[in-house]
Amino acid sequence: MLFLGGRQSPTDSSAEAGYARDMATHHSQAVEMAFIMRDDTTNDPLRVLTYDIIVTQTAQRGMFSGWLQQWGLNQSTERPPMAWMSGHGHGVTAAAPGAMPGMASQEELKRLREATGKEQEILFLQLMIRHHEGGVQMSEGLLKLSDRDEVATLARHIVAGQTGEIKLMTDMLAQRGARPLPSIL
User: Are 9 and 3 in contact (CB under 8 A)?
Assistant: First the structure.
């Protein structure tokens, strides 16, 4: 299938398709965590941050989905998560083979839902910093594998935006007398 301007559309096994699918999944968890925190906190700066994460990452998920549709590819695949990075040695690490970097475990999500007050705010900020580090890592990995304009532009935007939010969240943790989890970058 030809893409606008006569360029060949990415294939099912391309870095672009893998990135779009994996980042959609990655963003879905960030939105889930942000909704948990938004609904529970009374801290205005934290509510603004969670709202921004919800809006930005939901819009980006729509872009990922739209690209796949435009490229004539399915929204899901039989390929394992992060297969698009396999063998490229670009420093993307995950907790387990096929896992996406920065993703919270089911146990961590359960702890986030059950926590309250300052404890929940600290846990959210720690988990979201690690989550954003994973998004930055995946986006930087894509930039090493693709020069496709629309995908590379969004990947650069994600790196810049999430790096800025990591700094903001690190400052918010310091205000609460806490520190980030060990960095995965």
Answer: yes
pTM reported for the whole predicted model: 0.91
Tell me whether residue 77 is exposed, middle or buried, using C-beta atoms within 10 angstroms of its C-beta: 0 to 12, 13 to 18, 19 or more.
middle
Report CA dihedral (98, 56, 181, 89) to the nearest 10 degrees: 40
Q: Is 83 helix (H, G, I), strand (E, B) or coil?
A: helix
Tens-digit pLDDT profile for residues 95-108: 455 579 999 999 99
- Decide: 68 and 10 in contact? Cβ < 8 Å: no
Here the contacts of 52-59 (C-beta below 8 Å, separation 24 or greater) are: 52/165, 53/128, 53/165, 56/161, 57/27, 57/30, 57/31, 58/27, 58/31
Length of the chain: 185
